[in-house]
Amino acid sequence: MRSRLTGTLVVGAVFMMVLSACASNSSSGNGGGGSSPSATAALNTLTPGVLLVGSCLDYKPFEYYQGGQLVGFDVEIMEAIAQKLNLTLQWKKSNFDTIFTALAAHSFDAVAAASTIKPDRLQVVNFSNPYYNARQAFSVNTSKTPTITNTDQLTSSDTVGVQKGTTGKDWAETNLAPKGVQIKTYVNAPDAFTDLEAGNITGVINDEPSSEAEVSSRPSLKVVEAIDTNEHYGIAVAKDRPDILAGINSALAAIIADGTYAKIYNKYFPGVPVPPEFGGSPTPAST
């Protein structure tokens, strides 16, 4: 969130875990696919013919505004999925801290917000098959703390910024708080990086691709450590919307199979190999 990617065996295990969860919870609305992407009549969206997707809309490189236009990896993946389903895609901004409860309450049809599939979230919503492998990253202000290069160096005098409701926050609370490191939360991830620029905090724990995107336009900031947490993103759907989950899974499989996924991936993560499970070339066996 591997050079920058989790290993294939781990991803395969996650696929099996998610599919297993789908099977075991089918009575509560968890499905694993099966609908034809063109069978939109079976999809009971909030507004007929429209797929309304909730997201933060300020999380580079996944969903963000550029020149007044909404762009990003999640944005283009969802556009491709909606096209396969013959649906018009619409977005609705939501705070990440409450986005899954809002989804469960039918504020939107799905959530695409660089959302990690994790057990506590699966208690509230269902997730599609994984569509991205990710890990966390630790960023610092090299002009303020040039000697800090990893989280092991943090002490009780340090404060680390995290976004509310994220796995970065979970990791920091589990691994840094016990050492006395102060955890400061933010509604939006970019605000944490702005505070880091100002020297108000020591570092930021945040998803690696988003962190790389943030520091690219902030010369004093640098990602100094990657933290592999075996995270995998999924598209969230309310538990009582099995038709939508099945449609998204079918459409996701279709855009992987026809190469659309790989094209979008290469656009937003140039130089990073597309994982085999998402249509990339298999890693050659060691000799």
Fold and architecture overview:
With 287 residues, the chain is an alpha/beta fold. It is 31% helix and 22% strand. The strands form four sheets. A five-stranded mixed sheet has the order 9-8-10-7-11, sandwiched between helices. A three-stranded parallel sheet has the order 4-1-5. Strands 2-3 form a two-stranded antiparallel ribbon. The two termini are 28 Å apart.
Biggest sheet: strand arrangement: 9-8-10-7-11
CATH superfamily of the largest domain: Periplasmic binding protein-like II
Compute the number of structural domains.
2
Give the overall form: globular
Give short descriptive properties of this protein.
three-stranded parallel beta sheet; D-Maltodextrin-Binding Protein, domain 2; 9 helices; disordered N terminus; 31% helix; 287 residues; globular; five-stranded mixed beta sheet; alpha/beta
Chain-wise SSE layout:
Elements: H1 8-24, E1 50-55, E2 64-66, E3 69-71, H2 73-84, E4 88-93, H3 99-104, E5 110-111, H4 119-122, E6 125-127, E7 132-141, E8 159-163, H5 167-175, E9 182-186, H6 189-197, E10 203-207, H7 208-215, E11 221-233, E12 236-238, H8 242-257, H9 260-268
Parallel strand pairs: 1-4, 1-5, 8-9, 8-10
Antiparallel strand pairs: 2-3, 6-12, 7-10, 7-11
Helix pairs in contact: 2-8, 2-9
Short description:
The protein is 31% helix and 22% strand. It has 287 residues and is α/β, with parallel strands linked by helices.
